[in-house]
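testing teh design pipeline on a random one, pls ignore if ur not involved
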């Protein structure tokens, strides 16, 4: 897919759109538990939704597998990748929702999406 825009000198210039598959990251409302937020020992849990988008089911399945491994994947008894949160430490990660490829049709043609929701729980760094 390509689009046309004008170059600085006024002539058309072709630019490529983002290739598929791609992922959309959305932050969902957070929840808090334990002590009041002013207390350094309070825990916080943030939920993020990752929507993998592609033209075919195999594309979104592949990307969703990579996202899942990146967030909650394990190597032995450790997480595959560290998540650094300033002034906090990650105490839990969970895959809360994992859907299969859901085909939807748009004006541009067939689009397949795959939705995953992850919750990251943090506590004070102390």
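output:
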């Amino acid at each position: 897919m390509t689009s046309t825009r004008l170059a600085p000198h006024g002539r058309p210039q072709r630019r490529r759109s983002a290739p598929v598959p791609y992922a959309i990251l959305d932050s969902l409302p957070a929840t808090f538990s334990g002590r009041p937020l002013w207390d350094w020992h309070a825990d916080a849990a943030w939920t993020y939704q990752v929507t993998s988008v592609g033209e075919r089911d195999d594309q979104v399945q592949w990307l969703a597998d990579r996202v899942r491994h990146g967030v909650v994947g394990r190597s032995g008894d450790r997480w595959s990748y560290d998540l650094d949160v300033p002034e906090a430490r990650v105490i839990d990660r969970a895959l809360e929702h994992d859907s299969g490829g859901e085909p939807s049709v748009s004006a541009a043609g067939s689009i397949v999406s795959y939705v995953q929701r992850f919750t990251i729980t943090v506590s004070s760094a102390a």
